[in-house]
Amino acid sequence: MAIPVPLHLAIALDGAGWHPAAWRTAAVPAHAYFGLRYWADLAAEAEAARIDYVSFEDELAVQSPLPTGRDDRVDLFRGRFDAVQLAAGLTARTRHLGFVPVATTTHTEPFHASTAIATLDHVSTGRAGWQVRVSRNPSEARNVGRRTIPEIEPSGVASATKTRLRAELYREAEDFVEVSRRLWDSWEDDAVIRDLPTGRYLDRDRLHHVDFTGATFSVKGPSVVPRPPQGQPPVAVLAHEHNAFVLAARCADIAYVTPTDEHDAARLVEAIRAVEAEVGRREPGLKILADLVVFVGADAADRKARWDELAGAPMTSDAAVFVGSPVELAETVLRWQAGGIDGFRLRPGSHADDLIAVTRGLVPELQARGAFRTDYRSATLRARFGLTRPENRYAAA
Amino acid sequence: MSTVQKKPGDRQVILAAGFPHGSPWIIWSDPASGPQVDIASFQHAVRTAEDGKLDFFMLAEALRQREHKGKLFDLDITGRTHGLTLLNALAAVTEHIGLVATVSSTYNEPYELAKQLSTLDHLSDGRAGWNIVTTSDPASGVNFRRGGFLPHAERYRRAGEFLATARKLWDSWPIETVVGDGPAGRFVDDPEVGGYRQVGAQFDIAGRFCLPASPQRHPVLVQAGDSADGRQFAVDNVDIIFSMHAEPNAGRAFYADVKARARAAGRDPDSIKIMPGTQFVIGDSRPDAEERSRELAYRQITPQNAIARLEQVWGRDLSDHDADGPVPPVRDNRDVPHSGGYAPGGRPPSAQALAWYERAQAEKLTIRELIIAVTLRHTFLGTPGQIADQITDAVRTEAADGYVLAGLTQPTGLDEFVKSVVPELQDRGVFRTEYTGATFRENLGLPPVAGR
Ligand SMILES: Cc1cc2nc3c(=O)[nH]c(=O)nc-3n(C[C@H](O)[C@H](O)[C@H](O)COP(=O)(O)O)c2cc1C
Predict the structure, then answer these.
(1) A347 vs B352 pLDDT, higher one
(2) Residue ranges of the Luciferase-like domain (chain B) (predicted)?
(3) What are the Cα distances from residue B68, in Å, to A7, A201, A212, A226, A369?
């Protein structure tokens, strides 16, 4: 029998789920969303199903349907933890599950983001990743106050400016990832020597200045955090546009795409492979996960219709929306996989219903077909993706 | 068992566990010193502290690797974590103990940091603390967008407005507004929740905060400045001062100064707690502990470490000197690069050098003896009972409200203290036997955060 191609399943956790009205029928008291227990239960559910990892969204603003953040809705879920901090809080409640939180590159310090992700990797002993996010949202720029994002300001900026700004923010993200990766390598694995005769705790030759100078920042290094257990925690990019394809191909390990169907999925895989070739990416290629909003179960269509009605409009999303049974979802998953997709990041319509339908419906269905792991076998998130622990770029050859 | 009676005038002691990095305090060469950046080490340290009913666990911060003579410093235990990220991981394995991260107000922005601290306070059920530092190491800027360094007064102005802004953010979204009424379609009962605006010399920001108020509303605030600016900042802003004045006489002078400043500012002096950072040595008797202290000090300050520290202050190469020999004279060192460590009160190194040199002359100290005297603080020495008496006395005589303790090894350094000294303090009625408050702030006996 041929060895089946490993399928990757991640779950994107956010609020009460991805449907804006999902919270309205959930039996969760609203205050519980702001405590560890609720999130720990979701993580445990994902881990019991042998999910690769969970991801968390993050913005430097409150969730809002408007880019300015100035909406006056009271019926929407609001409030979100710092994603890296939340992931850290869940590491002790899980043993195998990976965590890939968002950290934004536009308004933050590369040194802090890099040390925070390295720490997440240390406290989880090798289960951390990082979704790099570019912010083009004026409300975030106003909250941080370090730079203005003119793009969507009322006067309406010429589209050439928009295009340039966008490209600049993506280039900055690339610098940000590059400097983070260098900082992760800035301590060699054997830097701590505890050498009694010379009184040295550290071999300073095994620590390295990273000496990065980019257009918007420079960082000298080395890091203050020793090299993370994975060496390089996996980096993910949500790729909607060419800039993001390039960013992913140049410096990420995982790309999320948002195909409309299996044909689009195959087309996007091809497009990403082309960009990889264009930028001269070396092996291994990007792991490409399709983002998919899912409403799963016998009652999925009814639930979604009810929530759409409560929300006052059908749910819209950048990703395709699946509505159907676990068996149908399993078939969709396998069809898209056959088109070249390495896996999925599922965004459950609601945690209360659809997350459970994924973990207890979809996963057993895939396992029964031999298409998904029945146990965790790899100790780190990199290993789960077939990635080896990389050599340190600074280690003497 | 309980043989010791609480004496009139004995006050409750506050105790915390530090986790030093980049300091000669930790004897890394001791077999009991485990891996430094390792989740099992951190869990051991925080669980031990919680077993001992300590008030909080505290992490220091440095934003670059220290250098000495233009090279990375290699003699002290080093390697840290991003403090808040670690504390969130430790929140899940503890229930009561306060979790204090040292975080710079110079190299962060209010919205992001307020959000991270609020996250910790939510996830720990009200146990977050923030030790606000302005980052006195002038070279840290090389790792940040800001680049250059702010002058001392400017750093404190930024810290003041930073904190005022963070308070606005924490107060912008009352938890009561989160009603979660599904049928009525009201997640919050006010469309404006989180709205805020800050316009000042340091920050010009506006919008909506992203989290409802956390259990303590504001984290417990700690500060470790020592200059007049630093002390005033503390009196105006914080709940706890982390000080370097562990020796009881110096402690009393600092204590009196800060409490007088508090009174002058119209603040209840009891609402600001003073906690020097210090170490202790337990022995079978006082002389035994003293002898152990001497031995341990020689292991903390190795010959190489003694020379390096003297070089930092003397501002020149002294590698050809014998650490167990005499202290060389000071030269004019006005332009000495400040290569790390905290110069008390920001005194220029040349003045510090003169003071150290005078002391070495007066007390006839070798280089190593001098460095031991000026960098180590084995404040409490003796049997567990004697140490408990010393701590009780120090707190009764207003040398401190309590102490931030560091062991001599890591992460095992407080094991013995928790096993043997804590019960003695409990017998004396000056230390809790159970956590009674629902939050860190309540356990400290601090009043709730005042109205918005
Ligand atoms: C006990 C103690 C601990 C300190 N810990 C830190 C620290 O972890 N990180 C840091 O950047 N500064 C730390 N500092 C430095 C202080 O924040 C402050 O910069 C220094 O004491 C000088 O005081 P001043 O700023 O009032 O001049 C510490 C100071 C003391 C006294």
Answers:
(1) A347
(2) 33-397
(3) 51, 14, 22, 19, 61
pLDDT digits (tens, 9 = 90+) for A181-196: 999 999 999 999 999 9
Return the CATH number at A131.
3.20.20.30
A179 lies in some domain = no
Rounded (10°) angle between helices B303-314 and B349-363: 130
State the distance from the centre of ligand 1 to the C-alpha of A150, rounded, in angstroms: 39
Q: Is residue B285 part of a domain?
A: no
How far, in Å, is the centroid of ligand 1 from the Cα of B130? 13
Instruction: Dig out the tokens for A137 from the structure.
Output: 């949202």
Do the domain assignments include residue A222?
no
Question: Which residues span the domain enclosing B309?
Answer: 302-374
Was B102 annotated as part of a binding site?
yes
For B131, the token pair is 């030790």
Question: What confidence tens digit (pLDDT) does each residue in B329-344 have?
Answer: 987 644 444 444 444 3
**Looking at the domain assignment, is residue B450 inside a domain?**
no
Asked whether residue B227 is marked as a ligand-binding residue, the answer is yes
Nearest residue on chain A to B308, alpha-carbon basis: A199
Is A62 close to B183, i.e. CB distance below 8 A? no
Last residue of a domain, one of B374, B409, B432: B374
Give the torsion sign (CA, A270, A103, A350, B91). Answer: positive
Smallest CA–CA distance from A124 into chain B, residue? B39
Say if the Cβ atoms of B92 and A40 lie within 8 Å. yes
Residue whose Cα lies nearest atom 19 of ligand 1: it is B136
**Which residue puts its alpha carbon closest to atom 5 of ligand 1?**
B60
* Distance in Å, alpha carbon of B258 to nearest chain A alpha carbon: 33
Q: What is the CATH number of the domain that holds B263?
A: 3.20.20.30
Mark whether B152 and B242 lie in a shared domain: yes
Does position A252 have pLDDT exceeding 90, yes or no? yes
Long-range residue pairs from B298-301, CB within 8 A, at least 24 positions apart, any chain: B298/B368, B298/B372, B299/B27, B299/B29, B299/B30, B300/B24, B300/B25, B300/B26, B300/B27, B300/B372, B300/B376, B300/B408, B301/B24, B301/B368, B301/B371, B301/B372, B301/B375, B301/B376
User: Are B37 and A35 inside 8 Å of each other by CB?
Assistant: no
Whether B187 and B229 share a structural domain: yes
Indicate whether residue B18 lines ligand 1 (CB < 6 A): no
Q: Closest partner residue to B203 among A59, A145, A217, by Cβ?
A: A145
Residues B216 and B230 in one domain: yes
CA distance A187 to chain B (A): 9
A234 within some domain: yes
CA of B229 to the centre of ligand 1 (A): 12
Q: Is residue B436 part of a domain?
A: yes
Name the nearest CA neighbour of A133 among A153, A113, A151.
Answer: A113
Domain span at residue A57 reads: 8-135+230-385
For residue A306, the distance in angstroms to the closest alpha carbon of chain B comes to 12
Pair (B153, B252) in one structural domain: yes
CB-nearest partner of A111 from B42, B143, B183 = B143
- DSSP H/E element including B58: strand B56-59
Cβ separation of B187 and A89 shorter than 8 Å? no
Question: Band of the pLDDT at B151, cuts 50, 70, 90?
Answer: confident
Give the 3-state secondary structure of residue B170. helix
Indicate whether B90 and B221 sit together in one domain: yes
B229 within ligand 1 shell (Cβ under 6 A): yes
Q: From ligand 1's centre to the CA of A49, what distance in Å?
A: 47
Task: Give per-residue pLDDT as tens, B232-265.
Answer: 999 999 999 999 999 999 999 999 999 999 999 9
Total number of domains in chain A: 1
CA-to-CA distance for B328 and B34, rounded, in angstroms? 36
Lowest mean pLDDT among B51-60, B136-145, B397-406: B136-145
The pTM (predicted TM-score) of the whole model is: 0.96
